[in-house]
Amino acid sequence: MKIAYLINQYPKISHSFIRREILALEALGVPITRFSIRACQEPLIDKADKEELAKTNIILDVGIIGLLISFLKVAITRPKRWLEALQLTIKIGLNSDRGLILNLAYLAEACVLVERFSYLEISHFHAHFGTNSTTVLLLNNVLSGVSYSFTVHGPEEFDKVEAIALPEKIKRAAFVVAISSYGKSQLYRWCEFKDWDKIKIVHCGVDDAFLSFSYQPMPEKPCFVSLGRLSEQKGQYLLIEAASKLVGEGYDFKLILVGDGELRQPIEESINRFNLEDTVEITGWATQAQVQKYILQSQVMVLPSFAEGLPVVIMESLALGRPVISTYIAGIPELVIPGESGWLVPAGSVEALVSTMKTVLDTPISELKNMGKIGIKLVKENHNVTQEAQKLKLLFESIH
Q: Which positions make up the signal peptide (predicted)?
């Protein structure tokens, strides 16, 4: 059994959960060949990501000429399969939000897999995210007959189901992974009833770097940490407004935003406008060790997202004994249990965010510690990456 992973960009700062999954599978005796469609545009700051980069085959490294050569070679050597793949590409492309030209590029990328990497004798491909990387595997399946599966995270896949041909991808896949019960329910909506048995839940997980981390007491000074790309869907902009209201009511606390992204400048401008320079800190991108440090400096992690799958940063925070404030969306309520491991607020509500942060600031630290310990237990039971990788291994083995 030779398994290969294909991801649009790998390694990548925000894809540490994929790295953990691959390494956990290899520790279980399943060697993984890594493919990425393109190189990551962001700087890699974590040593583990740099090590993964050296193991990864980048498809677009062949260049435009290489794509065209593979496209033509497969057309000549496998005309019947190539024509079938071309017809499927046109069908998908005409309904796609990305257009026919880009989908023809995906067909060329699939041809590269067939023509340039057939010597690797891959028996099964797995993709993360049901978007373009899975489109490439769908077309590769038509061209080569090699089976594929994929993990759906959301929210992007559920926002444009028809545009990414998700029902077609599910129909032709060996199996499809959802990362939460919520995700599984959404996949049920978009596949035929006879394919429901294909939908399996395999959680994203954390490794021993978090699960075996010795418990560290909470700091006495109130501090919130928010982890993730600075973007519209993560809701950090509203978090600055909430922090302003709390400071205006006389609350003294620290808020650390760990990450970077397209919304950094507007957030910085908002911090300056509300005179929060002494309250809010933006760290930029951080390594795993730095993420752990920032989590441990906090009492509570806050992630006021508008759209998610089930964020790994929630698992990481709970694993280190820090309860979480987040929103009533997607798979988050399956892990953040109000009154036990954290608090949930309606997405987009600054008022609810202010009220909940105020509750945290007024809660005795002993109660916060107890909630953190419940979080540790939840993550160990449901998000141990070795345990989840074992489920994937069994699924891979069931194919052949």
A: none
